[in-house]
Design goal:
Blueprint: H1 4-30, H2 34-59, H3 64-86, H4 96-133
Length: 135
């Protein structure tokens, strides 16, 4: 049976491919509209955030809580910079980046916590099976 992580990953990949395919066809017919430009900018921002997340995971050795704090501020700074460049934020509403990133971080933390709990249950089951078999 597939884990929820694999199902969510596959769903996101499929949705991204569908969106990019539809937009590619739309760009050929109508050019880059404002809506298509927004989605392409969001994909670009997602790529930058994924790279930064990878670098943080690979090169920093922090506690779990500090990982989330560092990622929250690093990603918020990226979103604000990208938002200023893309015209999403202005000096009067830059604080919205903290809200947007906070909501996404809470959702990601919830999914991650659920996954970690399932991994712990799986590992504990394996340890219990070994103990019962006398290994």
């Amino acid at each position: 049976m597939k884990s929820i992580k694999i199902i969510l990953r596959d769903t996101c990949i499929l949705a991204a491919l569908m969106i990019l395919s539809v937009f590619a066809i739309s760009i050929i017919w109508a050019g880059v509209t404002e809506e298509i430009g927004l989605v392409l900018k969001l994909f670009g921002l997602a790529l930058i955030i994924a790279v930064v997340n990878y670098l943080i995971d690979e090169y920093l050795s922090l506690s779990m809580a500090m990982y989330y704090v560092v990622k929250y501020f690093a990603i918020t700074v990226l979103v604000m910079l990208f938002g200023f460049i893309a015209g999403w934020f202005y000096p009067t509403n830059f604080w919205m980046a903290f809200v947007y990133v906070g909501v996404v971080l809470i959702l990601a933390y919830s999914i991650d916590s659920f996954r970690v709990k399932k991994d712990i249950e799986f590992i504990n089951g394996k340890i219990s099976d070994r103990g019962q078999r006398g290994l």
